[in-house]
Amino acid sequence: MAVLLKTLGLDRLTVEERIVLVEELWDSIAADGDDLPLTQAQQDDLQRRLDAYRDDPKAGSPWDEVKARLRAAQ
Predict the structure, then answer these.
(1) Which of 18, 35, 37, 74 is 20 to 30 A away from residue 26, measured at CA?
(2) Same domain membership, residue 52 and residue 29
(3) Rounded to two decimals, what is the model's pTM?
(4) How many CB atoms sit inside 10 A of residue 46's CB?
């Protein structure tokens, strides 16, 4: 385990407790998400996707359909 885990005593947490901790950490990051700038590559990709959507809004699939296809393929 990483030194930081041991230093903070996180190595003594159960798996469930560590999962909860990760969720809380992620929520705290998401709350401050505006402070995380996108890279130029990420900005370019988002622009490309937005342009593609504007060119043909019906080209994609609703999330529920995608999820159903993925579950059916398992």
Answers:
(1) 74
(2) no
(3) 0.48
(4) 11
Residue with tokens 């885990």: 5
Tens-digit pLDDT profile for residues 7-45: 999 999 999 999 999 999 999 988 887 888 899 999 999
Quote the domain boundaries for residue 49. Answer: 40-72
Quick one: residue 9, left, alpha or beta (phi over 0 = left, psi -120 to 50 = alpha)? left
What DSSP line would sit under 6-20, residue for residue? HHTTGGGS-HHHHHH
Buried b / exposed e along 11-35 (16+ C-beta atoms within 10 A):
eeeeeeeeeeeeeeeeeeeeeeeee
C-alpha 71/C-alpha 35 separation (Å) is 35
